[in-house]
Amino acid sequence: MKSSQSGHCTCTNNACPSWGDCRPCVARHRDRKEIPGCFFTAAGEKTYDRSVENFIKDQTCGVPMA
Ligand code: SF4
Predict the structure, then answer these.
(1) Is pLDDT above 80 for 5?
(2) How much distance in Å is there from the Cα of 8 to the middle of ligand 1?
(3) Which of 6, 44, 63, 65 is the most buried (most CB within 10 A)?
(4) With the CA atoms of 12, 15, 19 and 23 taken in that order, what torsion angle do they form, in degrees rounded to the nearest 10?
(5) What residue's CA is closest to ligand 1, atom 3?
(6) Cα dist. 30→24, 37, 64 in Å?
């Protein structure tokens, strides 16, 4: 059963078994040293690349952080 948060899930991979269920979603990406899709911009989320490197790129428009 999905959590009551499922209406707020912004991940476009709704075929994922963790879609709309924050606990397994966070655990899955934490175990992989990744970041859940809902932290990304809409464009960044659609890359399906949940790496920290892609998150930083997404949040800084590709501009390296000082
Ligand atoms: S962010 Fe990852 S684990 Fe969470 S719903 Fe999307 S694909 Fe699944």
Answers:
(1) no
(2) 13
(3) 44
(4) -130
(5) 25
(6) 10, 12, 24
Q: Which residue has the tokens 């960044």?
A: 44
Give just the sign of the alpha carbon dihedral 59, 60, 62, 66: negative
- The answer, yes or no, to whether any atom of ligand 1 lies below 6 A from the CB of 60, is no
Non-local CB neighbours of 64 within 8 Å, separated by 6+ positions: none
Please say if the pLDDT value at position 28 is more than 90. Answer: yes
Q: Region 7-20: what's the mean pLDDT? A: 93
Which residue lies with its CA nearest to atom 5 of ligand 1?
Answer: 19
CB distance 16 to ligand 1 below 6 Å = yes
Q: Output the pTM of the full model.
A: 0.83
